[in-house]
């Protein structure tokens, strides 16, 4: 599967997930929140992981990224948010996620 | 390089039809449901967007349900013309009793800032495939 990971940093949590997805044989690419909507429009990934600052929806601009992604992804594309724990319409995982949790989320 | 469109439409069932049409041409697209979001995406990705396909009647902003029947899309068409970005209209103005919108769009497509000479206009019913085909040919 083609997977886009949205994260502005290279935290060990995100890099660990990146490595895990690559080891599983998936085509993984990383993008920033500023470019996320464009990246998804061009690459048409099967799955989008939102990590790091993106999940902090209290920030207005991060909410906008999620809003744009929600509008732009098709029903067959899965959006997974990391670290957001108070519910919502997306599949959620905590950071750091274990290998098993990542595999189960796909 | 894949052509990326900005599609603006507020009704979910129409968005799904638009997505199917976009994919059928091998294009990519980003979607907005109101004028504020559409203008933000247009300005942010002005250099990456091949063209804009927009409905005419939708909200000015997400939280404002009261103006969903107003032709906010006309403002986006004007902005595209001013920025010389390809724009096409996919609307059903008969449904909105909005034949008056035909005239300003005809005038806008002759604006000196707009080099494409034509604003494709699906006006009787929303035909996403035909409208996208026309904007891709501009």
How does this model look, in words?
The complex is a heterodimer of chains A (106) and B (138). Helices cover 38% and strands 21% of the residues of chain A. Chain A has 106 residues and is of the alpha/beta class. In chain A, helix 2 packs parallel to helix 3. The longest helix of chain A has 13 residues, at 60-72. The model of chain A is unreliable at 84-89 (pLDDT under 50). Chain B has a single domain (4-136), classed as Response regulator (Rossmann fold, 3-Layer(aba) Sandwich), CATH 3.40.50.2300. Chain B has 138 residues and is α/β, with parallel strands linked by helices. A five-stranded parallel sheet of chain B has the order 2-1-3-4-5, sandwiched between helices. In chain B, strand 1, helix 1 and strand 2 (28-32) form a beta-alpha-beta unit. The radius of gyration of chain B is 13 Å and the shape is globular. The interface between A and B is medium-sized, with 15 and 20 residues.
Biggest sheet overview of chain B = 5 strands, parallel
> Could you please say which CATH topology of chain B applies here?
Rossmann fold
- CATH architecture descriptor of chain A: 3-Layer(aba) Sandwich
Q: Which topology of chain A does CATH recognise?
A: Rossmann fold
Please give the number of β-strands of chain B.
5
The rounded Rg of chain A comes to 12 Å
List the helices and strands and how they pair.
The complex is a heterodimer of chains A (106) and B (138).
Chain A: E1 2-6, H1 12-23, E2 27-31, H2 36-43, E3 47-50, H3 60-72, E4 78-82, E5 91-93, H4 99-105
Parallel strand pairs in A: 1-2, 1-3, 3-4, 4-5
Helix pairs in contact in A: 2-3
Chain B: E1 4-8, H1 12-24, E2 28-32, H2 35-44, E3 49-54, H3 73-83, E4 86-90, H4 102-108, E5 121-122, H5 128-136
Parallel strand pairs in B: 1-2, 1-3, 3-4, 4-5
